[in-house]
Each structure stands twice: as structure tokens, then as C-alpha cells.
Amino acid sequence: MTHDLPLWGEITVTVFLIVAGLFALVGSIGLVKLPDPITRLHAPTKATTLGVGGVLIASMVYVFATEGRVSMHELLITLFLLLTAPISALFIAKVHLHLRETPDTLPEAPDSVGWAGYAADGPARGVREVPPPEPGTTSTSI
Amino acid sequence: MITYALIFAIACFSLGLLLNLWRVIVGPRISDRILALDTMTVNCIALLILLNFSLGSPIFFEVAMLFALVGFVSTVSYCRFLLRGDIIE
Amino acid sequence: MLSRFLPHPLLSLTLVVAWMLLVNQITVNSLVFAVILGLVIPVITRPYWPDMPRLRHPFRAIEYVFVVLYDIVKANIEVALIVLFKPNRDLRPAWITVPLDVRSPEAITMLAGTITLTPGTVSCDLAANGHAVLIHALHAPDPDVVRDTIKQRYERRLKEIFA
């Protein structure tokens, strides 16, 4: 494959591609390396999103430098990923809170109203992992 | 120069995919698996766009867009199933 | 009269722009179709958009977007360094409670999204009365600093943007 670009385009695209690749790799390494589920949430949701954003910017610069037209297509995917990344992260965090944590392991909410995820009529009433019963007590949770 | 940068980026994203796959297999928690699958879709989107670079075919953009949409919806619906035991109420 | 055919001008504009981006070329054909979509979809989906948030300072919102983009890049580098070079036993993850001054749902949504996108912190849950947000920090030796940064840097700006 041949790429005929002006020098500035070539340098910009190269820099963006390398930085994007490194960020994505760091995100995936973090997913493997970090110690427990909730800290693992930190690395991939954001570093990988930034990596994809870098690739998309590189693609825009490339199209502009080779064909001289502005391709805004990529912007749509970037925006969509930036909008959806926090939502997926929030959902995964909620699943973690729902399955692995109890109100006792979290800090107290102000006004002592409790966190919404644990409210009696709140959103979480689905599959729940049964905690191992304490010796001497009978577990009644489902 | 761009050719080498492309190869480097494709290598990074592919290695990332392999690491994610390892996390999907090993787990150990279900939230880890969902997170790893979500990251895999994002990495796949980047790989598709890099493929678009090297093959020069605009069709990959539509595929990347569909990946973004379907990946988000599947992550949310899987989480929702775990949270509520139901997806559409 | 105008509000009947154009219930949400901003939504119509977003739809037109999104369609033009999707088509990726500016021709009269696609522009006409984009305008048709922008007119029809808001009317059809009107029951799902009960009321629109009021923006007090739209231009502050643009400033906010750039502040957040800059922070995303800067903080991503910090997290990358933590992931690569900090041994796991030196990590100080922490749960942090951030009391909220903003009350409108849109502002809280924006704040929670911003907290998640700026790496090092993920917003996890909301207090049952919506007056505080629970966040998890990857490496926070001093949780008060994180809380003050969020309140100073993001919440203050959001309070100005949303009336």
C-alpha cells in the first residue's frame, strides 16, 4: 500500500496512530494487571476510548491530507463513544455494587438516606449472588 | 512512515484484544467479563478503522458504527439483566 | 404555531447535523432529506421529550467541553503512569462521597459522566434523595483533594450553565 501525503500530514497521522495505540494498550494492560474488579473498571473504559478517539482523528487528518475534503464521519463515532462510555461504566459499576458490595462496605450517604442502588423499591432487584452464610446464622436472602 | 505506524497501531490493538480475551476467560467476577467484552468491542472498532486505512474501503465505517451501537446496547442489556432480572419491562 | 411544528429546535438541529455526518457529503439531496427527518422525528417522538433543560449560558457549555477534553487527555496520562509503573500494593483506592449542590437531573447526569470520563474516578451511585454521588477513585491518597477538585472544577461550571 502506498500513502502519498504531504510531510505535515504524514507526521500528524503517525503521531496520532502511535499515541492511540499506546493508550489502548495501556487500557488493556490495566484490565489485566489491576488487583480487584472495581479498580479494573478504571483503565479500559477511558484509556481505550481515548485510543479510539486518536485513531479516528488520525483518519480524519489522513482523508483531509490525501483527498483534500473534510470527512466528518469519524466525528460521529467519536461522539457516540464519548457519550456511551460513561453509561456503560456506570452500569458495570452498578452490577459490581449490586453483586459484591453491601451498604456496610461503602461510605455513608449524607442525610443517612442510603444509596439509590440499595433502596427497597430501587432499581436493583435482579440476580443476586448469595453471600456465604455466617456460621451460626440462617441466611434468608435469595 | 505511516505504514509502520499503522502496523504498530494494529499490533497494539490486537495485543489489547488478546489481553481482554484473557480477562474474559479468567474472570473471576461477572462484572470483569462484561467489562472485558465491552473493551473488546471498542478495540474492534479501532481495528476496523485501521483496516479502513490500509484497505481504503469506506464500507468499514458503517461496520464500525454498527459495532459501536450493538456493543453499547449489548453491554447495557447484559448489565440490566443482572440488575433487574429482566431487560424489557 | 412554531412550537407545534418545531417542538424542539435543538433536537431538530442535532438530527440534521447527525444525518449530514452519516451521509458524509454535502449535497442538496441529503440536506433536504436531513431537514425532513429533523422536522418529522421530533413531532413523532414528542411524548418522550416532556421538557427540555434550560441552558442559561450556552457559551459556558463550550468552554466546559474544552476543559473536560483537556482533563481527559491530561488525566489519562496520569492513569497510564499509575497502571504501568505503580505496583499494586502501593495503590490507594478509595470510595468518596461528593455532596451535590446542583439539583437538576441534566446537570447531575453531566457531572456523573464527566467524573467517569476523567480517569482515576468512576461515579458509581447516587444517594436515594439525589443529594450526593458515590465515586470510586483509583489512587487517592487524600480523598478530600479529589472531592474539592470535582466541586471546584466541574460542579461550579455546571451550576453556571444550567439554570
From TrEMBL, chain A:
<keyword id="KW-0812">Transmembrane</keyword>
<feature type="transmembrane region" description="Helical">
    <location>
        <begin position="47"/>
        <end position="65"/>
    </location>
</feature>
<feature type="transmembrane region" description="Helical">
    <location>
        <begin position="71"/>
        <end position="93"/>
    </location>
</feature>
<dbReference type="GO" id="GO:0015385">
    <property type="term" value="F:sodium:proton antiporter activity"/>
</dbReference>
<feature type="region of interest" description="Disordered">
    <location>
        <begin position="117"/>
        <end position="142"/>
    </location>
</feature>
<dbReference type="InterPro" id="IPR005133">
    <property type="entry name" value="PhaG_MnhG_YufB"/>
</dbReference>
<feature type="transmembrane region" description="Helical">
    <location>
        <begin position="12"/>
        <end position="35"/>
    </location>
</feature>
<keyword id="KW-1133">Transmembrane helix</keyword>
<keyword id="KW-0472">Membrane</keyword>
<protein>
    <submittedName>
        <fullName>Na+/H+ antiporter subunit G</fullName>
    </submittedName>
</protein>
<dbReference type="Pfam" id="PF03334">
    <property type="entry name" value="PhaG_MnhG_YufB"/>
</dbReference>
Automatic annotation (TrEMBL), chain B:
<keyword id="KW-0472">Membrane</keyword>
<dbReference type="InterPro" id="IPR007208">
    <property type="entry name" value="MrpF/PhaF-like"/>
</dbReference>
<dbReference type="Pfam" id="PF04066">
    <property type="entry name" value="MrpF_PhaF"/>
</dbReference>
<keyword id="KW-0813">Transport</keyword>
<keyword id="KW-0812">Transmembrane</keyword>
<feature type="transmembrane region" description="Helical">
    <location>
        <begin position="34"/>
        <end position="53"/>
    </location>
</feature>
<dbReference type="GO" id="GO:0005886">
    <property type="term" value="C:plasma membrane"/>
</dbReference>
<keyword id="KW-1133">Transmembrane helix</keyword>
<keyword id="KW-0050">Antiport</keyword>
<comment type="similarity">
    <text>Belongs to the CPA3 antiporters (TC 2.A.63) subunit F family.</text>
</comment>
<keyword id="KW-0406">Ion transport</keyword>
<protein>
    <submittedName>
        <fullName>K+/H+ antiporter subunit F</fullName>
    </submittedName>
</protein>
<dbReference type="GO" id="GO:0015385">
    <property type="term" value="F:sodium:proton antiporter activity"/>
</dbReference>
<feature type="transmembrane region" description="Helical">
    <location>
        <begin position="6"/>
        <end position="22"/>
    </location>
</feature>
<keyword id="KW-1003">Cell membrane</keyword>
TrEMBL record, chain C:
<dbReference type="GO" id="GO:0005886">
    <property type="term" value="C:plasma membrane"/>
</dbReference>
<keyword id="KW-1003">Cell membrane</keyword>
<protein>
    <submittedName>
        <fullName>Na+/H+ antiporter subunit E</fullName>
    </submittedName>
</protein>
<feature type="transmembrane region" description="Helical">
    <location>
        <begin position="61"/>
        <end position="85"/>
    </location>
</feature>
<dbReference type="InterPro" id="IPR002758">
    <property type="entry name" value="Cation_antiport_E"/>
</dbReference>
<keyword id="KW-0472">Membrane</keyword>
<dbReference type="GO" id="GO:0008324">
    <property type="term" value="F:monoatomic cation transmembrane transporter activity"/>
</dbReference>
<feature type="transmembrane region" description="Helical">
    <location>
        <begin position="30"/>
        <end position="49"/>
    </location>
</feature>
<feature type="transmembrane region" description="Helical">
    <location>
        <begin position="6"/>
        <end position="23"/>
    </location>
</feature>
<keyword id="KW-1133">Transmembrane helix</keyword>
<keyword id="KW-0812">Transmembrane</keyword>
<dbReference type="Pfam" id="PF01899">
    <property type="entry name" value="MNHE"/>
</dbReference>
<comment type="similarity">
    <text>Belongs to the CPA3 antiporters (TC 2.A.63) subunit E family.</text>
</comment>
